[in-house]
Amino acid sequence: MKKLKIGAIASGSGSNFEAIIEATEKGILKDKAEVVVLVCNKSGAYCMERAKNHNIPYVLIESDKHKGSREEFDKKIIKILKENECELIILVGYMRFVSKLFIYNFKGNVMNIHPALLPSFKGMHAHKDVLEYGVKISGATVHFVDAKEDHGPIILQKCVKVHEGDTEESLAKRILVWEHKLFPKAIELFCDNRIKTKGRIVHIDGEVIL
């Protein structure tokens, strides 16, 4: 069986990256997908160590040193991903927007995970915003990426209760457990051709068991 080739892009620690690698090595993606390359935009980011530990090739393209447009920066990443014949791109803690050019080059097959229930609490400070707003339920969202922030069609979501006395750290820790399950499951659905998108609505064939 031909495995789906995944390209990953990250900026930081990469715990979701690690969870997906483990799913391809010994979990639900073992016979379905493989991570073939990591692109990182931040020097010293631990995600590159994770790639090294699993013998996954990685490329550092430092965004801090890039002087041109977003499209010009994305072209560098597109080149690497296409050279590795990537069919699905995953953003695993990538702290930059991608351009319309990037989305077009991969036919919209770009996924991201966000630590809140979109469309609420977009952006980089979701846990802080959740606690300040006083909502009782937060969670995680896997979605296809478009050119707007945390905006693309939603694939999967998981609710996580906000506890009295939660801090950003305690809430993030409980949600992260589900992020590590949700993202591999979304990729499995993609591998199995169970996802159909019409407009911004994602239809999933059959029941999803997490």
Give structural notes.
The chain is α/β, with parallel strands linked by helices and 210 residues long. The protein has a single domain, classed as Formyl transferase, N-terminal domain (Rossmann fold, 3-Layer(aba) Sandwich), CATH 3.40.50.170. 34% of the residues lie in helices and 24% in strands. It contains six helices and nine strands. It has helices spanning 15-26, 47-53, 70-83, 100-105, 126-133, 168-191; strands spanning 4-10, 33-40, 58-60, 88-91, 110-114, 137-144, 154-161, 195-198, 201-204. The strands form two sheets. Strands 3-2-1-4-5-6-7 form a seven-stranded mixed sheet, sandwiched between helices. The chain has a two-stranded antiparallel sheet with strand order 8-9. The longest helix has 24 residues, at 168-191. It is globular, with a radius of gyration of 17 Å.
How is the quaternary structure best described? single chain
What's the CATH H-level homologous superfamily? Formyl transferase, N-terminal domain
**H and E string:** EHEHEHEHEHEEHEE
Strand content: 15-25%
Helix/strand-derived class?
alpha/beta
The total count of strands amounts to: 9
In spatial order, strands of the major sheet run 3-2-1-4-5-6-7
CATH C-level class: Alpha Beta
Poorly predicted tracts of residues = none
- Rounded to an integer in angstroms, the radius of gyration calculated over CA atoms is 17 Å
Q: Per CATH, which architecture?
A: 3-Layer(aba) Sandwich
The description of the largest β-sheet is: 7 strands, mixed
Number of helix segments? 6
Based on Cα principal axes, name the global outline.
Answer: globular
